[in-house]
Amino acid sequence: MPSGTAEVQVRPGVEEDLKALTDLYNHYVRETPITFDTEPFTPEERRPWLLSHPEDGPHRLRVAAHADSQEILGYATSGPYRAKPAYSTSVETTVYVAPGAGGRGIGSLLYAALFDALAGEDLHRAYAGIAQPNEASARLHARFGFRHVGTYREVGRKFGRYWDVAWYEKPL
């Protein structure tokens, strides 16, 4: 277990996490280009997202919480890569770590738990899009066997400028 993670519990996300998960995500919506959502969400607006990640199947949600306080420190998901049926054995993965919780190995714990949970599923590839620049995310994905496969140039506009997204893939 990485240094500083002994007090962290990783578990499936549950309904009681919805407000904290929404608050965490909204930080990235308001403050960073890491997500291309541009308007914060209410917990009710995020409920369908939470419910689209059951405890089994290819689309999962793993939450890192402080073992004592249950404060949400981050989350990782796998979701549909694209909607068409032939893409069903591919997933898009993502990790969000709470502000102030970075550099403690939370992202690694989350991805380890997520990929362990996905091991028995009928999946062939995982994909991750990383808004540029984001060296920490690129390093995390490389540690988990992702390789860079290309970059979409100026694909999203947020905060009055265009952002590139580097795409990574990993065999499952």
C-alpha termini separation: 23 Å
Total helix count? 4
Mean pLDDT across all amino acids: 95
Oligomer: single chain
Helix fraction bin = 25-40%
Contiguous runs where pLDDT drops below 50 for at least 5 residues: none
Strand order of the largest sheet: 1-2-3-4-5-7-6
- What fraction of the residues are assigned to beta strands by DSSP? 25-35%
Shape: globular
Helix and strand content put the structural class at: alpha+beta
Describe the secondary structure blueprint for this structure:
Blueprint (H helix, E strand, L loop, with lengths): L7 E5 L5 H14 L11 H9 L9 E6 L5 E9 L9 E8 L8 H13 L6 E7 L3 H9 L3 E12 L2 E11 L1
Parallel strand pairs: 4-5
Antiparallel strand pairs: 1-2, 2-3, 3-4, 5-7, 6-7
Helix pairs in contact: 1-2
Features:
globular, single chain, 26% helix, GNAT_dom, Acyl_CoA_acyltransferase, acyltransferase, N-acetyltransferase family protein, 4 helices, transferase, 172 residues, alpha+beta, 7-stranded mixed beta sheet
Give your account of this protein's structure.
This protein starts with 7 loop residues before the first strand and ends with a strand. The chain is globular and about 45 Å long. The chain has four helices and seven strands, in the order βααβββαβαββ. The model has no long low-confidence stretch (mean pLDDT 95). Helix content is 26%, strand content 34%. Helix 1 (18-31) crosses helix 2. A hairpin with a 5-residue loop joins strand 2 and strand 3. Residues 8-172 form the N-acetyltransferase domain. This is N-acetyltransferase family protein.
